[in-house]
Amino acid sequence: MKKPTTPRKRASAKEADPQKVKKAFVLDTSVILYDHSAVEHFGEHDVAIPITVLEELDNFKKGNDIKNFEAREFIRFIDNLSNEHMLQTWLPLEGSNKGRFKVLMSHTAPVDAEKIFSDNKADHKILNATLALQQEMPDHKVVLVTKDINLRLKARALNLSAEDYETGKIQNVTNLYRGNDLVEDIPHPVITKLYDEGECPVEEALPNPPSDNHYFILRSTKSSALAYYNPEQRVLERVDKLTAVGIKPRNAEQTFALHAILHPEIKLVSIQGVAGTGKTLLALAGALEQRDTYNQIYLARPIVPLSNRDLGFLPGDANSKIGPYMEPLWDNLKFIQNQFTPHSKESNKIKEMVEEERLVITPLAYIRGRSLSNIIFIVDEAQNLTPHEVKTIISRAGQNTKIIFTGDIYQIDTPYLDSQSNGLSYLIDKAKNHKLYAHVTLQKGERSELANLANDLL
């Protein structure tokens, strides 16, 4: 359910709508691991969790991943909420216009999900707890809330209402902010002024002020220019094609992305695009070009193991376990090094940065808790992060830090996220039109003609 945008006063007995259906929401473990404060986002309605969820959270409370943090925070939350009260009774949630909370102890239901699905796993215990609550509260509409699609389907098969957790979810992802546009029929003097003076007043080219740090391909009947809206000066500035450590942009969108990465006043950048559009390569090249401005470059990515199994099942030490997941990042670094001869000054400088740990490629979990000051921090595959993870990363930024998120919102590798609920989509939607933020959408694949064939036809 969406969190209400404005609080509504609790209706009095005279004002109560007789047609209004009371609701009770049952949250499963996936919702808590996504957002530990989820129980507070259902307005005046009651919220419950099965005891099985607490049992599952106990398995997640140790560790450094965000899911471990969420589990610990939720356990602390209900500990404070219950205080000296019993959790199996309804407890009022703090705050105006809030419902009640309790832990569901009973798994006895008229329909036994464990027998129907021939398995006593946790999901089926959660279904039974929801069915039992439905029988206990016939005057309420009982709804199971889960980010597990298969569990929602099982619930509906048992005639239970089931929904995804909607808080933080982007509703219209097809119209997600793109960060760059093509504008045609621009007066030719505007193009001329951009080339002659490097800038022009925004009102001479566009009828309405654009979003801060927005990029444009401007076309007149005679010529075209690449431009950027400077929110401080309130002018359109010409964007030139720059080169970073031997990497040259191959299209307008890549030019925009590299401009945002190199711009000293833009501290937060996101780059969205399908495989082969050059997201990670541009981010790394732009960071290396600024190696004298920042103390370190961190290139990190979240690890989503095969079948979501823990990395412990892989053989070898920690480096051996994470190596395969970091290999694509090393491939980009090698591609940049190959722009130079093996023993050239530029190639040796990159090797020195790796050896001196001024350039660090690491799993995202390994940098949590560190101070992010005087660094460029590149987060690859950001579509596999939750909104809370993205917020946590950005909130740790110190002085002289730049953060770059790259990813493809349609290529989700974790089962409880999608194009609407992942952290990259959330960032693009919430941060647009801020003077510290720029976003660019890359569309044209530049890896190879064969890669483009796969993206276009298969």
Automatic annotation (TrEMBL):
SUPFAM superfamilies listed in its UniProt record: P-loop containing nucleoside triphosphate hydrolases, PIN domain-like
Signal peptide residues on this chain, from the entry's feature table: none
Pfam families: PhoH (PF02562), PIN_4 (PF13638)
InterPro entries: P-loop_NTPase, PhoH, PhoH2-like, PIN-like_dom_sf, PIN_dom
Top-level lineage group: Bacteria
GO terms of molecular function: ATP binding
Keywords: ATP-binding, Nucleotide-binding
GO cellular component, as recorded: cytosol
Bilayer-spanning residue ranges: none
Ranges for domain PIN: 23-153
Protein family per UniProt: In the N-terminal section; belongs to the PINc/VapC protein family. Belongs to the PhoH family.
Protein name as catalogued: PhoH-like ATPase
Source organism of the structure: Rufibacter quisquiliarum
Taxonomy of the source species: Bacteria, Pseudomonadati, Bacteroidota, Cytophagia, Cytophagales
